[in-house]
Design goal:
This protein has helices at 18-31, 50-53, 103-117, 132-140, and strands spanning 2-3, 8-12, 60-66, 69-78, 86-94, 122-127, 144-145, 160-165. The chain has four helices and eight strands.
Length: 166
Protein backbone atom coordinates (compact mmCIF):
# COMPACT_ATOMS: atom_id res chain seq x y z
CA UNK A 1 0.00 0.00 0.00
CA UNK A 2 1.36 3.40 -0.99
CA UNK A 3 0.17 6.81 0.17
CA UNK A 4 1.15 9.47 -2.32
CA UNK A 5 1.88 13.14 -1.60
CA UNK A 6 -1.22 14.11 -3.54
CA UNK A 7 -3.44 12.36 -0.99
CA UNK A 8 -3.96 9.38 -3.26
CA UNK A 9 -3.64 5.82 -2.04
CA UNK A 10 -2.57 2.95 -4.33
CA UNK A 11 -3.21 -0.54 -3.01
CA UNK A 12 -3.96 -4.10 -4.14
CA UNK A 13 -7.60 -4.77 -4.93
CA UNK A 14 -9.76 -6.30 -2.20
CA UNK A 15 -13.03 -8.22 -2.59
CA UNK A 16 -15.10 -5.29 -1.33
CA UNK A 17 -13.66 -3.11 -4.10
CA UNK A 18 -15.38 -5.09 -6.87
CA UNK A 19 -18.50 -2.91 -7.27
CA UNK A 20 -16.51 0.31 -6.96
CA UNK A 21 -13.88 -0.42 -9.62
CA UNK A 22 -16.58 -1.87 -11.89
CA UNK A 23 -18.43 1.46 -11.54
CA UNK A 24 -15.27 3.37 -12.49
CA UNK A 25 -14.75 1.19 -15.57
CA UNK A 26 -18.38 1.56 -16.64
CA UNK A 27 -18.40 5.35 -16.16
CA UNK A 28 -15.11 5.93 -17.97
CA UNK A 29 -16.17 3.57 -20.77
CA UNK A 30 -19.45 5.46 -21.21
CA UNK A 31 -17.58 8.77 -21.24
CA UNK A 32 -15.52 7.59 -24.23
CA UNK A 33 -18.32 5.65 -26.00
CA UNK A 34 -16.76 2.24 -25.30
CA UNK A 35 -19.90 0.12 -25.26
CA UNK A 36 -20.40 -3.54 -24.44
CA UNK A 37 -21.92 -4.33 -27.83
CA UNK A 38 -18.57 -3.50 -29.43
CA UNK A 39 -16.57 -5.92 -27.27
CA UNK A 40 -14.90 -3.41 -24.98
CA UNK A 41 -14.08 -4.13 -21.31
CA UNK A 42 -17.64 -3.37 -20.20
CA UNK A 43 -18.64 -6.61 -21.96
CA UNK A 44 -16.23 -8.66 -19.83
CA UNK A 45 -18.25 -11.18 -17.79
CA UNK A 46 -15.67 -10.85 -14.99
CA UNK A 47 -16.06 -7.08 -14.63
CA UNK A 48 -17.94 -7.41 -11.34
CA UNK A 49 -15.43 -9.96 -10.01
CA UNK A 50 -12.02 -8.37 -10.56
CA UNK A 51 -10.71 -9.32 -7.12
CA UNK A 52 -11.32 -13.00 -7.88
CA UNK A 53 -9.89 -12.67 -11.40
CA UNK A 54 -6.69 -10.98 -10.25
CA UNK A 55 -6.21 -13.31 -7.29
CA UNK A 56 -5.12 -15.96 -9.78
CA UNK A 57 -1.49 -16.90 -10.25
CA UNK A 58 0.80 -14.30 -11.82
CA UNK A 59 -1.98 -11.69 -11.83
CA UNK A 60 -2.39 -8.46 -9.91
CA UNK A 61 -4.68 -5.44 -9.84
CA UNK A 62 -4.29 -2.19 -7.94
CA UNK A 63 -6.91 0.42 -7.15
CA UNK A 64 -6.41 4.12 -6.56
CA UNK A 65 -8.35 5.82 -3.81
CA UNK A 66 -8.93 9.53 -3.45
CA UNK A 67 -10.35 10.53 -0.07
CA UNK A 68 -11.57 6.97 0.50
CA UNK A 69 -13.29 6.61 -2.88
CA UNK A 70 -11.97 4.36 -5.66
CA UNK A 71 -11.19 6.53 -8.68
CA UNK A 72 -9.06 4.27 -10.83
CA UNK A 73 -7.18 1.06 -11.26
CA UNK A 74 -5.12 -1.17 -13.47
CA UNK A 75 -3.65 -4.62 -13.58
CA UNK A 76 -1.67 -7.28 -15.32
CA UNK A 77 -2.28 -10.97 -16.00
CA UNK A 78 -0.96 -13.71 -18.27
CA UNK A 79 -2.21 -13.22 -21.84
CA UNK A 80 -4.76 -15.95 -22.49
CA UNK A 81 -4.28 -18.24 -25.53
CA UNK A 82 -0.76 -17.07 -26.23
CA UNK A 83 2.75 -18.39 -26.07
CA UNK A 84 4.35 -18.44 -22.61
CA UNK A 85 6.09 -15.34 -21.33
CA UNK A 86 3.54 -12.78 -22.49
CA UNK A 87 1.42 -10.84 -20.02
CA UNK A 88 -1.29 -8.29 -20.71
CA UNK A 89 -1.68 -4.84 -19.19
CA UNK A 90 -5.39 -4.71 -18.42
CA UNK A 91 -8.28 -2.56 -17.28
CA UNK A 92 -6.44 0.72 -16.85
CA UNK A 93 -9.25 3.20 -16.10
CA UNK A 94 -9.15 6.53 -14.28
CA UNK A 95 -11.82 9.03 -13.32
CA UNK A 96 -11.28 12.66 -14.42
CA UNK A 97 -10.30 13.68 -10.86
CA UNK A 98 -6.99 11.79 -11.14
CA UNK A 99 -6.16 12.11 -14.82
CA UNK A 100 -3.00 14.03 -15.61
CA UNK A 101 -1.44 13.25 -12.22
CA UNK A 102 0.87 10.52 -13.50
CA UNK A 103 -1.08 7.68 -11.93
CA UNK A 104 -1.56 5.75 -15.17
CA UNK A 105 2.19 5.83 -15.80
CA UNK A 106 3.01 4.76 -12.24
CA UNK A 107 0.45 1.96 -12.28
CA UNK A 108 1.67 0.69 -15.66
CA UNK A 109 5.26 0.69 -14.41
CA UNK A 110 4.23 -1.14 -11.22
CA UNK A 111 2.35 -3.75 -13.28
CA UNK A 112 5.31 -4.30 -15.59
CA UNK A 113 7.69 -4.62 -12.64
CA UNK A 114 5.34 -7.23 -11.15
CA UNK A 115 5.28 -9.10 -14.48
CA UNK A 116 9.06 -8.95 -14.88
CA UNK A 117 9.50 -10.38 -11.37
CA UNK A 118 7.32 -13.32 -12.39
CA UNK A 119 9.35 -14.11 -15.47
CA UNK A 120 7.28 -12.48 -18.20
CA UNK A 121 9.41 -11.24 -21.08
CA UNK A 122 6.83 -9.25 -23.06
CA UNK A 123 3.78 -7.17 -22.21
CA UNK A 124 0.83 -6.80 -24.58
CA UNK A 125 -2.08 -4.40 -24.50
CA UNK A 126 -5.12 -3.49 -26.51
CA UNK A 127 -6.83 -0.14 -26.56
CA UNK A 128 -8.66 2.13 -28.96
CA UNK A 129 -7.60 5.24 -30.83
CA UNK A 130 -10.29 7.28 -29.06
CA UNK A 131 -8.16 6.96 -25.91
CA UNK A 132 -5.42 9.03 -27.52
CA UNK A 133 -3.82 10.10 -24.22
CA UNK A 134 -3.49 6.44 -23.21
CA UNK A 135 -1.97 5.53 -26.57
CA UNK A 136 0.60 8.33 -26.21
CA UNK A 137 1.43 7.15 -22.67
CA UNK A 138 1.99 3.58 -23.84
CA UNK A 139 4.19 4.79 -26.69
CA UNK A 140 6.17 6.87 -24.20
CA UNK A 141 6.61 3.75 -22.01
CA UNK A 142 8.19 1.90 -24.93
CA UNK A 143 5.23 -0.04 -26.30
CA UNK A 144 5.29 -0.42 -30.08
CA UNK A 145 2.31 -0.85 -32.37
CA UNK A 146 1.81 -4.30 -33.85
CA UNK A 147 -0.46 -5.33 -36.73
CA UNK A 148 -2.51 -8.23 -35.46
CA UNK A 149 -3.96 -9.27 -32.13
CA UNK A 150 -2.23 -11.67 -29.77
CA UNK A 151 -4.04 -14.12 -27.52
CA UNK A 152 -7.80 -14.23 -27.12
CA UNK A 153 -8.84 -11.13 -25.23
CA UNK A 154 -12.35 -10.85 -26.67
CA UNK A 155 -11.93 -7.11 -27.28
CA UNK A 156 -12.82 -7.19 -30.95
CA UNK A 157 -13.06 -3.41 -31.40
CA UNK A 158 -9.74 -2.58 -29.76
CA UNK A 159 -7.95 -1.68 -32.96
CA UNK A 160 -4.75 -0.47 -31.27
CA UNK A 161 -2.48 -3.35 -30.29
CA UNK A 162 0.88 -2.80 -28.68
CA UNK A 163 3.74 -4.88 -27.34
CA UNK A 164 6.77 -4.14 -25.16
CA UNK A 165 9.77 -6.23 -24.24
CA UNK A 166 10.25 -6.43 -20.51
Amino acid sequence: MTTLPTGLLVRPIQAEDNPHIARVIREVSAEFGLTADKGFTVADPNLDHLYELYSQSDSAYWVIELEGRIVGGGGVAPLQCSEPGICELQKMYFMPAVRGMGQARELAMQAMDFARERGFTRCYLETTASLSRAVRLYEHLGFTHIDGPLGCTGHVDCEVRMLKSL
